[in-house]
Design a protein that fits this description.
321 residues, alpha/beta, Rossmann fold, seven-stranded parallel sheet, four-stranded parallel sheet, 12 helices, 38% helix
Amino acid sequence: MSLAFNIYAAVGTLAAPLLRRMLSRRVTRGKEDPARLGERFGIASCPRPAGKLVWLHAASVGETMSVLAVVEALAGRCEVLLTTGTLTSAQLAAERLPAHARHQFIPLDVADWVEAFLRHWRPNIAVFVESELWPTTLAKIDQHGIPRLLINASLSARSAARWRKLPKFANILVFGFRYIHVQSKADAANFKSLGAAGILEWGNLKFAAPLLPYDRAALAQLQHDITGPVWLAASTHAGEEAIVAAAHEILLAEFPDLVTLIVPRHPERGTEFASPRRSQGEAPVAGQIYIADKLGELGLFYRLCTFAFIGGSLVPVGGHN
């Protein structure tokens, strides 16, 4: 192990009491599930299923959506454990995971917590989605002799240059993967520039994701409620809604019955808006903005509208696809 990794691991262990307090504060802010907080310390809330178990880790909603097709493909072959780190992704998992899969929150990157997690679940293989990589977790996986894969990975030229400055650290994080499935040829080139092997150029996994589901009755109701023009601002972030609202006001001069649908990237932000909100059972009103702050309904709103703006493009978060 490199000196940098040893320092990182030691700091994580020493910081455990502070991390516990941090998680407690997140509970009070509605960022963690109090009934499942033990999972963040590696304490499982359900038993391990018998037989082979594939562990998939996805950071949040976007990664979870992209990996659902993989979960479905594993049906009849093995059991699946999906871990994520956000409440919204946990809710999505509860709604979309099939019977052969179950969800847990990923433990924080503290050696004892990761060890408890691995001892309980004993996965036959660990599969990480995109770039959610934690050094202590990866090192513990290697200590247990669990093969690991990285799927739908991306690596910019700038990130590759930073990795080259920490080759021993990079060896733990990147080169311990049996295979690395990349999103594009550029990503493949950047991984290969670091000496990575086992590169699979299969394209972006998100393009294999199933169509977003929707409720036909809910769509019919919205089509009944909205009789005039309507457009969608999807997956918006803080700072973008004000711009969308300004555009709405400009468009009202020509389209007085316009309904602007805003779907925040994080539904819990719905409380920030004074407009009618879907989570409160309120209906759209002609000429007003409507906040669709319920998880898992983007398929409904994309089908309702013929024009959509995708958030994450007016603020520096990298955009969404």
